[in-house]
Design brief:
The complex is a heterodimer of chains A (520) and B (216). Chain A has 520 residues and is mainly alpha-helical. Chain A contains 20 helices and two strands. A two-stranded antiparallel sheet of chain A has the order 1-2. In chain A, a hairpin with a 4-residue loop joins strand 1 and strand 2. The longest helix of chain A has 33 residues. Chain A is globular and about 70 Å long. In chain A, 62% of the residues are buried. Chain B has 216 residues and is an all-alpha fold. Chain B has one domain. Chain B is built from seven helices and no strands. The radius of gyration of chain B is 18 Å and the shape is globular. Classes of the chains: A mainly alpha (520), B mainly alpha (216). Chains A and B meet through helix 5, helix 6, helix 8 and helix 9 of A and helix 5, helix 6 and helix 7 of B.
Chain lengths: 520, 216
């Protein structure tokens, strides 16, 4: 199989199996088994093909397909890896979650078919977004992802979930309209500059000719892009939809939205930021990133402190983590970007773990608020362990992965001379720590409610969490060399706009040296 | 009248029709006004096509006629007719305040567009500024209207703004680009209307101020 065929199958498999899942509602008694099998095959093959594509990118630098319309470079490969791994694990978790919903009457065969049809359709749109080299298609994929996932958010059909779905749809579509306007401006600027105007739609071609683009248009376009796709990523103050949507959607859907969709929205912002940095110099983009990143971290930290609902807490934590990624990119330089990309991977894994844990809590307690959810260690001790590890990891405790990436971000910030900003960020992290500690202590201990029987739902609601713990711990202790190579390639691309660009950062020790110099 | 002047003047009609979409009392008529606005948009595409000899624009005009003049208004008219007996939610802003905000949007758009140095955009700068202002009108409509389906129309206005900007700046763009955007916008309207209907069936309201279970 060639690299181009990987891309073809990567897109076709979830699309076709999504159609099968939709059609399977008319298969009577066989519906459940066919839908679940189709889903399992889809997420497994997507994982395998994602890894194979990433491997090909590591070998040859980039992979193209369909006359350049599809394209995976080192930057795309980082996000493809996240999409492949998280979709597989959350896909497995979904099977356990929906099985439980079927037993308690929350789902019937029809709803199951809709759910898995939409899940795989959504996966297809995310893969299209990550592999697209066509900037208009990138936007189309983003919009299609929003439209598909809106029904997943409102799948329960009750008042709160329908409200959440409407809010999600309207705010995100407005955001995407901004994104479209920005995309149209970039396209128009390129269209009037490129020698072959038909190529103006290809990101790689726009990048090659970026020097000649009209600076005023690119400046306006980037503001539209950041506001538009930043809405999807959940940046403050465009985040209003996010806590409602993440808290009302089924947990696996929240996991996909938070760990995959929001992350992929960042990829689009980064793709446009490379072009903008070449046209206007890096400072314009960096200032915007630092401003939006810092206010997102600050607002989310304080909102987290006043929450009483575990899923809303996780939603605000998601905003905080995305904010941190932007701060890292705003610092600029190889160290900041390398650390920001590492944080992107790490937060996706930790978020997935925490959403799995919150799903198990909801299955058991039928509630998410602090008043009812108590005594988790008595009722569902294994989920309790997932929750403890997830919480420790997300606040940045060693030896877990987010400690490493946040440590690298702070080090990069200090080395770049942003001492006060880093002090503010560290203080905000203390608020985050306090918010999580208050929550976790209250939920884990105490007496479980009388009507809650002890015992986990099924092993499939625990297995993905177990795998995620291993990944989170592993990445906290060391970064495997293929991943370092990928991150170096992606950072080089973001810094120079050159796909073959590599940065001097090779390992964690490159961050420790400037820190040591500073401390001396 | 030269084609350039004609295009710039026709965009003025877009502002007028936008106001009609937003302010007309009967929501059903908003859908009709939107169709009227789309006819103006199609007209602009045709004038632009003949002025610039960009044959692609005739195709754009044809697809915009099918989706924006016929399909989207029809979908919205039907949806709004089904809930005709409902008491109409009031707007969040007074008419005067809406006018002031719209004037601000136009002023900001002219200032922004003025910075653009692109040669191709030079003759159409007024139209370009209005297309950008139009985009903001759509957002204004979403922010100020409490009827779910009128918010959908706000989305349509925003989309018309981007569509016109694209036509003015890249009139030779391949038809595929335009089809991608137009189809996605059509699906956007369909999904919003389906969800809006689901909300009306289950919660018996179209007023967004009744949707207050969640805190944001």
């Amino acid at each position: 199989m060639t690299e181009t065929t990987y891309l073809l199958w990567l897109l076709l498999i979830p699309l076709l199996l999504s159609l099968l899942a939709f059609v399977a509602r008319w298969f009577g008694a066989l519906t459940r088994i066919i839908v679940v099998l189709a889903h399992l095959v889809s997420v497994t093959l997507v994982l395998v093909l994602s890894v194979l594509t990433v491997q090909a990118v590591l070998g040859s630098g980039r992979v193209f397909g369909f006359s350049g319309w599809l394209h995976v470079d080192a930057l795309g490969a980082v996000f493809l890896l996240i999409t492949g791994v998280v979709s597989f694990l959350i896909g497995l978790y979904s099977i356990g979650y929906t099985d439980q919903q079927l037993r308690t009457g929350g789902f019937d065969s029809r709803k199951l078919s809709t759910y898995y049809g939409l899940f795989n359709l959504f996966l297809f749109t995310m893969l299209l977004l990550v592999t697209s080299n066509n900037i208009i298609m990138m936007w189309v994929a983003m919009e299609a992802g929003t439209l598909g996932s809106a029904f997943m958010v409102g799948v329960h059909g009750d008042r709160a979930s329908l409200e959440a779905a409407w809010k999600y749809l309207v705010i995100c579509l407005v955001g995407e309209a901004f994104g479209l306007y920005g995309t149209v401006l970039v396209y128009s600027a390129a269209f009037n500059t490129l020698q072959v105007p038909a190529n103006a739609v290809l990101w790689t071609e726009i990048l090659k000719n970026a020097q000649a683009l009209d600076p005023a248009m690119i400046k306006i376009a980037f503001v539209f892009v950041l506001v538009g796709f930043g809405t999807k990523a959940g940046l403050f103050p465009m985040h209003a939809w996010l806590p409602d949507t993440y808290s009302e959607a089924p947990s696996p859907v929240s996991a996909m939205l938070s760990a995959v969709f929001a992350t992929c929205a960042l990829l689009v912002i980064f793709r446009f930021s490379v072009i903008t940095s070449i046209v206007l110099g890096p400072s314009f983009v960096q200032i915007l990133f630092l401003v939006f990143g810092t206010i997102s971290v600050a607002a989310a930290s304080f909102f987290m402190y006043v929450q009483h609902d575990v899923k809303r807490l996780l939603a605000y934590s998601s905003i905080e983590n995305i904010g941190f990624i932007l701060v890292a990119f705003g610092l600029g330089g190889p160290a900041g970007i390398f650390a920001g990309l590492l944080q992107t991977i790490n937060q996706s894994l930790v978020k997935s773990l925490l959403w799995c844990a919150s799903g198990n809590i909801f299955i058991k307690y039928r509630a998410r608020n602090l008043e009812r959810v108590k005594g988790i260690l008595q009722a569902i001790p294994a989920t309790g362990v997932l929750l403890i590890v997830g919480a420790l990891a997300v606040v940045g405790s060693p030896p877990f992965n987010i400690f490493l990436s946040k440590f690298l971000i702070v080090t990069a910030g200090l080395a770049a001379g942003y001492t006060w900003l880093m002090i503010v960020c560290l203080l905000l992290l203390l608020v985050v720590f306090a918010a999580f500690f208050r929550f976790i202590a209250s939920m884990l201990f105490g007496e479980k409610p009388q009507d809650v029987a002890a015992g986990e739902s099924n092993w499939l609601t625990l297995l993905p969490g177990g795998v995620l713990i291993l990944l989170i711990l592993g990445l906290g202790l060391f970064i495997p060399s293929p991943l370092t190579a990928l991150l170096r390639g992606a950072s080089g691309l973001l810094l120079t706009g050159n796909a073959g660009g590599q940065i001097a950062v090779t390992d964690v020790k490159d961050f420790l040296l400037p820190l040591a110099r500073l401390l001396r | 009248m030269s084609s350039v002047t004609l295009v710039n003047s026709l965009t003025g009609l877009l502002i007028l029709t936008s106001f009609l979409v937003i302010e007309v009392k009967q929501p059903r008529w908003s859908a009709v006004m939107y169709s009227l606005q789309s006819i103006v948009l199609v007209g602009i595409f045709i004038v632009l096509a003949s002025a610039t000899h960009a044959n692609e624009l005739y195709l754009w005009a044809a697809s915009a006629f099918v989706t924006k003049v016929l399909l989207v208004p029809w979908i919205l008219y039907r949806a709004l007719s089904q809930v005709g007996g409902q008491e109409q939610p009031r707007n969040a802003l007074s008419l005067t305040l809406s006018f002031i905000l719209a004037a601000c949007a136009i002023a900001v758009s002219f200032l922004v567009v003025n910075q653009i140095q692109l040669k191709a955009a030079e003759p159409f700068k007024p139209a370009l500024a209005i297309s950008m202002a139009h985009f903001f009108f759509g957002e204004l409509c979403i922010l100020t209207q409490r009827n779910l389906f009128k918010q959908v129309l706000g989305f349509c206005l925003m989309e018309n703004g981007s569509h016109l900007t694209l036509a003015l700046l890249a009139f030779n763009a391949p038809e595929l680009v335009e089809i991608g955007i137009a189809t996605d916008a059509l699906f956007g309207v369909i999904v919003m209307v389906v969800l809006g209907n689901q909300i009306f069936r289950n919660l018996h309201t179209l007023d967004t101020s009744d949707l207050r279970t969640l805190k944001g």
